[in-house]
Write a structure and sequence with these properties.
Layout (H helix, E strand, L loop, with lengths): L12 E2 L2 E2 L10 E7 L14 E7 L5 E4 L3
This protein binds zinc ion.
Length: 68
């Protein structure tokens, strides 16, 4: 009877390549946009300091991507 329905995992493609979890080879992920303002002190040229990470729906491993 959960009030909050768990989001469905999605399949992800990176530049036309299907993303498989590097740990367990799973193909379902949850997307998270992550602010990295605090890290931007090291690289102040970043215009949009948001990274994208995909959390494996099976093992929880985070796959990080920087915007291109
Ligand atoms: Zn996994």
């Amino acid at each position: 009877m959960g009030l909050f329905k768990a989001p469905q995992p999605v399949r992800v493609e990176i530049k036309g390549n299907p993303l498989n979890c590097i740990i367990c080879r799973h193909q379902g992920f949850h997307r998270r946009d992550v602010q990295i303002n605090k890290l931007s002190l090291l690289t102040p040229d970043w215009a949009d300091p948001v990274a994208v990470c995909y959390e494996c729906d099976n093992c929880g491993y985070l796959h990080w991507f920087m915007p291109k």
